[in-house]
Amino acid sequence: MAHEPADAAARLAVAIGRINRRIRPSADGLSLGLLSALSTVVRLGPLRPSELARIEGVAAPTATRAVAELESRGFVERRPDPADGRAFFVSATRAGEEAVLHARAERAARISRLLDALDDGERAAILDALSALEAAADSRDDLEESSRA
């Protein structure tokens, strides 16, 4: 029996949400928002806080608070913008890079345990769907714009 696209989308959203809650990292006591911001700085930095806000899809004051919190924990550092004395760039420290690596390893280990609990057919079905899921995750479809409408 074929599933309606809306039903499949709803089921996928619920499954992703439940899995995400089960695999949340506890690395360094970072919230998901802080870990996401730190991961972005590690991957794309150095960044201005305004760029971080845009990438993370949050308001500028939220990004500024995240930068301040990450800086107080020693995960990022500020460097002056040579072209604009009022602005600064945020870069990850070695401790920040290690926190991201630790969180990713922790999530991967938790996912591995979830996969180990499945039978061979279920595990194969998930592995077969990985390319499509990765493509969906990397899609640049502007979900933020449609959610604001």
Can you tell me about this structure?
This protein has 149 residues and is mostly helical. The chain has a single domain, classed as Arc Repressor Mutant, subunit A. 67% of the residues lie in helices and 10% in strands. It has seven helices and two strands. The chain has helices at residues 5-22, 32-44, 49-56, 60-72, 94-116, 120-138, 143-148, and strands spanning 76-81, 84-92. Strands 1-2 form a two-stranded antiparallel ribbon. Strand 1 (76-81) and strand 2 form a beta hairpin. The longest helix has 23 residues, at 94-116. The two termini are 34 Å apart. The mean pLDDT is 88.
Spatial arrangement of strands, main beta sheet: 1-2
Q: Multimeric state of these chains? A: single chain
Instruction: Identify the CATH architecture.
Output: Orthogonal Bundle
Mean pLDDT rating: 88
β-strand percent reads 5-15%
Residue share in helices? 55-70%
- Helices, by number, come to 7
Low-pLDDT runs of 5+ residues are none
Largest sheet entry: 2 strands, antiparallel
User: Ends: how far apart?
Assistant: 34 Å
In the CATH hierarchy, the third-tier topology is known as Arc Repressor Mutant, subunit A
Helix and strand string, N-terminal first?
A: HHHHEEHHH
Instruction: Kindly give the count of domains.
Output: 1
Level-1 CATH class name:
Mainly Alpha
What is the total tally of β strands? 2
What do we call the CATH homologous superfamily? Winged helix-like DNA-binding domain superfamily/Winged helix DNA-binding domain
Q: How would the global form be characterised?
A: elongated
